[in-house]
Structure formats: structure tokens, C-alpha cells
Write a structure and sequence with these properties.
globular
Length: about 290
């Protein structure tokens, strides 16, 4: 693929690296949640899982999706090709539909047990920071190719829309996985539109109903429209991870690779056997973001 085919040439990848480093520094200086495990050891595990996922994504998922997007543009098939829209209207609609369909895909990975076995690898991280962003099992990345084919083919996504959304998706994913403490007023303002660290931190809670909320990637309103939005949990009260997988050996690299193929434990019970429940909420309205 030539540089001209990438949005903003090399500025896109360079911007991602710069943002990653800024978020990494920011969350070390202004952490949102207290860390439970040694940082460097987690980073090695997370980067190892990410490297495997990235290899599959760049070798299979991205070429397949972009190839189909090019065919869609040339042969004019898919929803966007059938709608007589000017360029920028087509771009805006395509971008929104990609984000909406990612909401559905993310939710499916929580709802269907077979998909959850692989998505679990992302959630059993006992802490949450920018290195968690792309910690996905490589098999999950591989079978997401099927979703990409359906998404790009039915919507008629062009290469330009795909690449711009891919860049926005990556920026948003790093931002909302970060452990960066923003001023509450600023985060509340950003969260009127975008997914933010406090919102996504609840999605990584060890309490089942909280994990099964806040599925959005870029725009937070998909959760609001689907009634899966939850903001009323204080970050200091959140246990990050999956209750049944909080022991130190559960986060070793080799174990994470074989985890989907092992006998699954009760997800929402701590190693002690106690159920992971939240018995009291300070604010009943799930739309209210707390400190």
C-alpha cells in the first residue's frame, strides 16, 4: 500500500505513537485508579498479546477489509453506493454506521459464550491503562474478519471512510482505555459526545452488569440509545478485571493464549467464591458520571 493511500500519509501512524506516549506519561503522573500489579510485568504481557493480534490484523483483517472496500467503490454495491449523497454526507453517514455496527459487534462478543471466551482475554487484565487498548486474543482478531466483510460489504464502505474510521477508532480506543485522570468537569463535557476513561473503566469492572454496559467505541450515544449506558459508579469502587480470573497466574502470557480453550470458571465469582455484586448505588440515575 502506498503512502498516498493512507489518510495524512505517515502522520497518522506517527500521531498514534505520539498519543500513546503522551497517554502513557499522563496516566503515570495523574492516574485515575490505583494500580494493583507491577506495571512493567503487565506491559510485557499486554504488548506480547497485542503483537500477536496486530500481526493477524495487518496480515489478514485489514487487507481483506480494504480489498472489499475497493471493490465496493469500483462496482458500487452496498448501502452508501445506493444512496444519492454528496461526498461529505456519504462520509459522515458511513463513519457513523461503522461506529454503530462496532457497537453491535462489541456487544455480541459479550453476549455469545463462544465469542466471550476469546474476548475474555481483553477483560482479565487486572489493571486498565493504554497498554490494554489492543490486548485481544489473536483468534478474536482473526474471526473478526467475518464481521468486517459483512460490515464493509453491506454498508458499501469506501477505502477513504474505512481508513479514516480506523484511525479514529484507534485514537478513541487508546484514549478511553487510558488510566488518565481528567478533571471531572472536562470529562463530563467530553462524554456528552465521546467515550471517556471513566465511562470505559466501568466496562472493565469485575461486576457482571457493569462489564455488560458501555460498549461504544467513539461516540457514547449508542449506549444511550440502546439503554446500555452506565456512568454512576465511582472509579475508586471499581475492581478492574473479571472476578473469576484475578489471581496473578491468570495474567501470564502463555495462560492467556490458551485461556479460551480451557474449562471456564464462574466469571462473576471471586476466587474466594463470593459473588461479584454491587449492592448499593449512590446515584440511581445511570447517566450521572461520578468521580
Amino acid at each position: 500500500m502506498t503512502t498516498a493511500y493512507l489518510p495524512f500519509g505517515y502522520l497518522g501512524p506517527l500521531g498514534l505513537v505520539v498519543l500513546f506516549l503522551l497517554l502513557l506519561a499522563g496516566e503515570l503522573w495523574y492516574p485515575l485508579r490505583r494500580r494493583k500489579r507491577p506495571t512493567k510485568r503487565r506491559w510485557v504481557v499486554n504488548l506480547g498479546i497485542t503483537a500477536l493480534s496486530y500481526a493477524v490484523g495487518t496480515a489478514i483483517v485489514r487487507p481483506v477489509a480494504l480489498g472489499l472496500a475497493s471493490l465496493s467503490q469500483v462496482h458500487a454495491f452496498g448501502l452508501l453506493a445506493w444512496l444519492p449523497l454528496p461526498f461529505w454526507s456519504q462520509f459522515a453517514l458511513g463513519f457513523l454506521l461503522m461506529d454503530l455496527t462496532f457497537y453491535w459487534w462489541h456487544r455480541a462478543n459479550h453476549v455469545y459464550p463462544l465469542l466471550w471466551r476469546f474476548h475474555l482475554v481483553h477483560h482479565v487484565d487486572p489493571d486498565l491503562d493504554v497498554t490494554t487498548s489492543f490486548r485481544f486474543h489473536f483468534v478474536e482478531t482473526f474471526y473478526s474478519t467475518g464481521f468486517r466483510i459483512v460490515q464493509v460489504g453491506l454498508l458499501g464502505i469506501t477505502p477513504f471512510i474505512y481508513l479514516v474510521y480506523e484511525l479514529a477508532f484507534t485514537l478513541a480506543t487508546m484514549f478511553h482505555h487510558s488510566n488518565l485522570r481528567l478533571p471531572l468537569w472536562l470529562e463530563r463535557s467530553l462524554n456528552k459526545i465521546f467515550v471517556t476513561p471513566r465511562m470505559h473503566g466501568i466496562h472493565h469492572s469485575a461486576v457482571g452488569p457493569e462489564t455488560n454496559s458501555n460498549y461504544s467505541v467513539v461516540f457514547r450515544w449508542w449506549d444511550y440509545l440502546h439503554r446500555s449506558l452506565r456512568l454512576n459508579i465511582r472509579q475508586r469502587e471499581i475492581v478492574i478485571g473479571v472476578a473469576g480470573y484475578l489471581l496473578p497466574p491468570d495474567n501470564h502470557l502463555i495462560y492467556l493464549i490458551i485461556l479460551p480453550f480451557t474449562r471456564q470458571r464462574p466469571y462473576w465469582r471471586f476466587p474466594s467464591g463470593k459473588a461479584s455484586l454491587r449492592r448499593r448505588l449512590e446515584v440511581d440515575d445511570p447517566r450521572v458520571m461520578l468521580e
